[in-house]
Amino acid sequence: MQQQYEPVEARTAGRPTRILVVDDDPTVAEVVAGYLDRAGHLVDRADDGPTALTRADAHRPDLVVLDLMLPGMDGLEVCRRLRARGPVPVVMLTARGDEEDRILGLEVGADDYVTKPFSPRELVLRVESVLRRTRPQAASPAPPIGAAGLTVDPAARRATKHGAELALTLREFDLLSFFLRHPGRAFGREDLMREVWGWDFGDLSTVTVHVRRLRGKVEDDPARPRLIQTVWGVGYRFGTGAGETS
């Protein structure tokens, strides 16, 4: 039977986070693993897709750094299978820089995308940015918030639509939470990247893809979004269902 993963926040209290690095280039894998190890993480390595899935089942990772171009089973398929097991965060690492490839990685559930050649220090910062959003908050957790039939519980990392649980990725949950906390206010993609992702730079298509994926899960008709509205020339805003822009 296929193993299911627990949420990261349920497993990381009181121990270092475990990261699985999947890359068939031994030099890249060694550099990435070395930087992550020095940053205090436990690191497992795999050089192909089947091995990555086996390692993930043997030692459940808190995050996966995943190369897109792998022998036998590509990173997109590995990501799909990892996501089917549970909400493990994934950072895609690849030599492909085309927007279509970036979007494919995000569409199958990757939380971030870093293109080779890359700065190992930047990769560590991206990894830790993703991990921070999986850890329980030390301060009193924010109370549940909701509007238009949607509710998010930050403490439980749980989102529902009319009482039915939504299967959201880490970034989708954070994006929906942000929109619900700021109803009616328009935000540019740069604003969302800074406020939700915590980055002062990055590929803005990441925001576009996550908005599209989130619409697919919260809108009654994603082709005619009424909740997450496009504000032309600005970005997006969360309405109460009366809007019409796409």
What report would you give on this structure?
The chain has 246 residues and is an alpha/beta fold. It has 2 domains: 8-132, Response regulator (Rossmann fold), CATH 3.40.50.2300; 145-238, Arc Repressor Mutant, subunit A (Orthogonal Bundle). Helix content is 37%, strand content 18%. The protein contains 8 helices and 11 strands. It has helices at residues 26-38, 49-58, 75-85, 99-107, 120-132, 170-181, 189-197, 205-218; strands spanning 18-22, 42-46, 63-67, 90-94, 112-115, 145-147, 150-153, 158-161, 164-165, 228-231, 235-238. A 5-stranded parallel beta sheet has the order 2-1-3-4-5, sandwiched between helices. The longest helix is centred in the last third of the chain and has 14 residues, at 205-218. The radius of gyration is 18 Å and the shape is globular. Residues 18-131 form the Response regulatory domain. This is DNA-binding response regulator. InterPro entries: CheY-like_superfamily (IPR011006), OmpR/PhoB-type_DNA-bd (IPR001867), Sig_transdc_resp-reg_C-effctor (IPR016032), Sig_transdc_resp-reg_receiver (IPR001789), WalR-like (IPR039420), WH-like_DNA-bd_sf (IPR036388). The modification 4-aspartylphosphate is found at residue 67. One of its GO terms (cellular component) is protein-DNA complex.
